[in-house]
Design a protein that fits this description.
With 249 residues, this protein is an alpha+beta fold. Helix content is 29%, strand content 26%. The structure holds 2-amino-4-trifluoromethylsulfanyl-butyric acid and cobalt (II) ion.
């Protein structure tokens, strides 16, 4: 399957999906507090998706059981919400959510602090978010996938952190995962060229320590092999002639 170019009408639909998802993540940000469980976050997200008249994108995807992924501390991505997982002051939680409105997907993630967090955790979150912004800032028609990956990698490695290799971003539209794959590392001017109308989910996953990850026995939760903290930020982004439109911002 080739990379799909979306019409302005389709982008307009994806703008609606993106705005709704932005709202869901905003409610999670405003609600999170020590003592809550990750299942509480799931319930909030479920209600937010329903209120928006949207359909959850993750639930049932390859058997995934929830509408939200909640990845705490050394969990990198795909943590499964649980009523047994209580959040404590100082934790960081990546919340990753996807939804569908009128057939069009949006996918976005952010890493939230629980109460007051350490300076090193703050630096990890700030760096990961900044690496996503750096990637978005190179997006335009004619830029390459290598430009995007290199932009992330430079910010992350400059800060002394490492980019996760085993998971990548992706095209998105009428499916959650479309071509192309979008690595968070690479070399400038290499790889395929972006074109106006492509829509990309760019999602750096950054470890405070080594880049290696492994998946737990639940078949989903990816954790850092060295136990170091990890962060994840993701936006759904449309490629324009002269730049990018962040549909989930
Ligand atoms: N944001 C993740 C991704 O881009 C979410 C997929 S997880 C699943 O791949 F739960 F839906 F499987
Ligand atoms: Co994604």
């Amino acid at each position: 399957m080739a990379i799909v170019i979306r019409s302005p009408k389709e982008i307009a639909k994806m703008r609606r999906s993106g705005a709704a998802l932005r709202g869901v993540l905003q409610v999670l940000r405003d609600s999170i507090t020590p003592g809550m469980t990750t299942m509480d976050l799931e319930k909030i997200a479920e209600a937010g998706i329903a209120d928006a008249g949207a359909v959850a994108a993750f639930k049932g995807y390859h058997g995934y059981p929830c509408v939200l992924c909640t990845s705490v501390n050394e969990e990198v991505v795909h943590g499964i919400p649980s009523a047994k997982r209580t959040l404590r002051e100082g934790d960081v939680v990546s919340v990753d959510c996807g939804l569908i409105i009128d057939g069009y997907y949006a996918d976005s993630a952010t890493t939230l602090p629980v109460g007051k967090i350490s300076e090193s955790a703050k630096k990890l979150l700030e760096t990961t978010e900044r690496s996503l912004q750096a990637a978005i800032s190179v997006v335009r028609s004619g830029a390459t996938l290598g430009d995007v990956g290199a932009a992330v990698q430079e910010v992350v490695e400059e800060a002394g952190f490492s980019v996760v290799r085993d998971f990548v971003g992706h095209g998105i539209g009428t499916e959650m995962h479309e071509e192309p794959q979008i690595p968070n590392f690479g070399r400038r001017a290499q790889g395929i060229k972006l074109r106006q109308g492509m829509v990309l989910a760019i999602e750096p996953m950054v470890n405070a320590g080594q880049h290696k990850v492994r998946v737990l026995e639940d078949g989903w939760t990816a954790v850092t092999v060295d136990g170091s903290l990890s962060a994840h930020f993701e936006h759904t982004v449309a490629v324009l002639a002269e730049g990018a439109e962040v549909l989930t911002a």
